[in-house]
Write a structure and sequence with these properties.
- Pfam families: CoA_transf_3 (PF02515).
- It comes from Variibacter gotjawalensis.
- Its EC number is 2.8.3.16.
- The protein folds into 2 domains: 270 residues, Crotonobetainyl-coa:carnitine coa-transferase, domain 1 (Rossmann fold), CATH 3.40.50.10540; 82 residues, formyl-coa transferase, domain 3, CATH 3.30.1540.10.
- 37% of the residues lie in helices and 15% in strands.
- It has a 6-stranded parallel β-sheet, with helices on both faces.
- Strand 1, helix 1 and strand 2 form a beta-alpha-beta unit.
- Helix 1 crosses helix 8.
Amino acid sequence: MAGATGPLSGMTVLELCHFIAGPYCTRLLADMGATVIKIETPGEGDPIRTWGEKVDGRSLWWSVHARNKKSVTVNVKDPRGRDIVLNLVKRSRIVVENYRPGQIERWGLGPDVMAAANPRCVLVRISGYGQTGPNRDAPAFGVIGEAMGGMRYLTNHPADMTDLPSVRVGFSIGDSIAGMYGAMAALAAVHEQDNAEVPTFRTIDVALTESVLSLLEGCLPEFGKLGMVREPQGSRLATASPSNAYPTKDGAWVLIAANSNPLFARLSALMKQPELAKDPRFLGNHERVQNMDAIDRIIGDWTRAIESAELVRLLAEAQIPATKIFTIEDIAADKQFLARGMIQKVPDPYFKDELLHPGAMPIISGFDRAAAVRWTGPDVGEHTGDVLGELGLSADEIAALKKDGVV
């Protein structure tokens, strides 16, 4: 197991989480060098261990989801297990949990208990609706946050083009956004504690619904002032034009974002229709937004006659932002991602092979991105003995706890 690298090296993070949002938060911290101790239920572990595609019964996703983390099994419902967790709280700067509100209190591990154990600690709490309010006790996953936060309504074609329900983003983006907010706020609270004369225990309350809502640009003020409800735009951008996906001769789609006046002038010249940049309908972004149908029809008629690779080349030469819509196969072969180490081959001993992993985000000067992935997702309880030994438990004591199902 490689030693920690990164700016958070030396910081201990305790993970009391399952599923996606909380573990994603801690993975970000682990990738930046923190020592993350993940608490799992003895024998079962995190349900994500069984999600996604598997090889020999082991989840490939788990290799990334739990990378750089130590897995310790503890039955937190047993008083002895609770004591083990509290001893780990005493050694941690950040604790992350994403159970339903009130669950850790029922285990005897609420914020007041943690604060008494370690006032120089930050507790991140990620839940569907937050720790307060009329919905606090309702169950929720990322998809609920995406729907209630307004994203799901907007991820569709306009109503006159389809009667199908709004589509979901192809991964749990609501969970990921909440996890990012949790990590960011935790580090802000640690910074505040480090600069305080008397550090104060801080609790971070992250709601999936609010995390998604926070991304909706001007939707809320537009509604509050004008009564305007932003509607689904399909591949378009409601506030800028042209910015859309256009069909190509080989059946692919290429995104073109020429939504400034200089970019639109260059696109018009590339299409050999320079007069478009002077057309009253397209003089500025406001005019182009009002005439999206016309402008998209003109551009689409041009792109349909060109192969996607050639179209991307022409647009790149003209310095117009554009790309083919990438599949994961395209991503894995992309020279830009490869050059920056965003696609990494990571040895995974459980698969006896190298797996492709996304690189750690972001690049931080002075730290090697390639060294950030120190090991892949561990077995259930793989580090239980080591971590409990660091707490001062003897081999006999650990064996007795295992026999009783406490760890």
